[in-house]
Write a structure and sequence with these properties.
By secondary structure, the protein is an alpha+beta fold. The chain has helices spanning 37-44, 54-57, 68-82, 110-132, 134-138, 182-187, 240-262, 342-351, 364-367; strands at 19-27, 46-50, 87-88, 106-107, 140-144, 150-155, 158-163, 168-172, 206-210, 226-233, 269-281, 285-295, 307-316, 319-321, 335-337. The strands form 4 sheets. It has a 7-stranded mixed β-sheet with strand order 2-13-12-11-10-8-5, with helices on both faces. A 4-stranded mixed β-sheet has the order 6-7-1-9. The chain has a two-stranded antiparallel ribbon with strand order 3-4. α1 packs parallel to α7 (240-262) and α3 runs antiparallel to α4.
């Protein structure tokens, strides 16, 4: 038969509908930067700072969650132990004794543990902030798995196309204000960004002639149309530096998509900077990235004003100790240790950033949905 799938011959690249003569470099969330944040900063023309912006740092003690320790512990236990899911887990090798053959384990898959914990913490933070400051709750939307975030632009002589995979996003009725004043933006012209020469920052992108050009922020533009905070879940074996690089490029891509809608045709410095926050979470650790886009002139990393990025990396919420049956003490069960609430306080400050913080008599306990 002519349509027998066993003898199907896929069309060649030049025969497909999306074939173009000019090649493009494609980026998605699986694109792993060899040089990590150094490479991402050079690509995005960003001056790097470590820690949180001062405007966010000041909010760490602004929000209160009654029984905070108990609620965070419940969220952790729910995701790590209490869930009844028992699936065959991937084979585990312990770097401390890689030759030891560990018996096949059954339990909660990593992706499900990560989803449950992160979304419970986000919901708890969102509820706590909205109960203290109702104006925030009315001006925000928490969207899970937004679809279709993409943009494209020219970099030197190359065309770059970005497809941004995001696990959740907080949107707002008003944009985030800049993290730094205008004077510091002006002075950034004299800042130097470490070069990667002779390596191109797009070395890890996929070069292809089959692509589509799309610009979309991925959510409705009717009410809460401004991006506020992006959430990326890390169920991979990347280093924290590589994860922060992914967070920066994702924030830049969404900011550029917003620029194309807000200031069509602009080529260099923006009239008003665009700010985006990113929380990227692994099973036990939170990383925070704060990006301020001042210009979309990425071609020359030395001339003109620069963009800004802040990295707050390696905030360990708790430690997960896995069984090591070859040891004499016979550690046969997974244990959860060393809870630290500071990462959750930073999460509260990030989610609650830049809204009108007017006192409200509404009590958090009246609003909280038990985990």
């Amino acid at each position: 038969l002519a349509d027998d799938p066993r003898f199907y011959v896929p069309p060649k690249g030049e025969e497909k509908k999306n074939y173009r003569e000019t090649p493009a470099f494609l980026y998605n969330r699986n694109c792993r930067f060899i040089e990590g944040t150094k490479q991402a900063c050079f690509l995005t023309k960003s001056v790097r700072y470590d820690g949180m912006p001062e405007s966010v740092q000041q909010l760490i003690d602004k929000f209160e969650v009654p029984d905070e320790s108990r609620l965070v512990q419940k969220a952790i236990l729910k995701s790590q132990i209490w869930d009844s899911t028992r699936e065959k887990l991937p084979k585990r090798r312990d770097p401390e004794y890689p030759r030891y053959k560990i018996d096949r384990e059954y339990g909660i898959p990593l992706e499900k543990r990560l989803n449950m914990l992160s979304f419970d913490l986000l919901r708890m933070a969102d509820t706590a902030i909205a109960s203290q400051y109702p104006e925030i709750g009315r001006s925000r939307r928490l969207i899970f798995y937004p679809n279709g975030m993409a943009t494209f632009f020219k970099y030197s002589d190359s065309l770059l196309s970005f497809y941004l995979g995001i696990d959740a996003a907080i949107t707002s009725t008003s944009p985030l204000p800049p993290f730094v004043p205008e004077e510091l933006v002006e002075s950034s012209s004299s800042e130097a960004i470490p070069s990667l020469y002779p390596i191109s920052p797009t070395i890890d992108f996929l070069k292809t002639n089959n692509y589509n050009l799309k610009n979309s922020i991925g959510f409705s533009e009717i009410s809460c149309k401004f991006p506020h905070t992006l959430i990326l879940l890390n169920n991979d074996d990347w280093s924290e530096d590589e994860r922060q690089a992914r967070a920066l490029v994702t924030a830049m891509g969404l900011a550029v998509a917003q620029v194309k809608k807000t200031y069509p045709g602009i080529k260099d410095r923006l009239p008003t900077p665009i700010s985006v926050q990113v929380i990227n979470m692994s099973e036990t650790t939170m990383n925070f990235t704060y990006f301020q886009l001042n210009t979309i002139d990425f071609d020359n990393s030395e001339a003109g004003v620069k963009n800004f990025v802040w990295f707050d990396t390696g905030n360990v919420l708790f430690e997960r100790r896995l069984p090591q049956p070859w040891k004499r003490d016979k550690i046969l069960e997974t244990s959860l240790e060393n809870l630290d609430l500071d990462p959750f306080k930073k999460l509260l400050a990030t989610v609650g950033n830049c809204a009108e913080l007017e006192d409200s008599s509404t009590q958090f306990k009246e609003k909280l949905i038990e985990l």
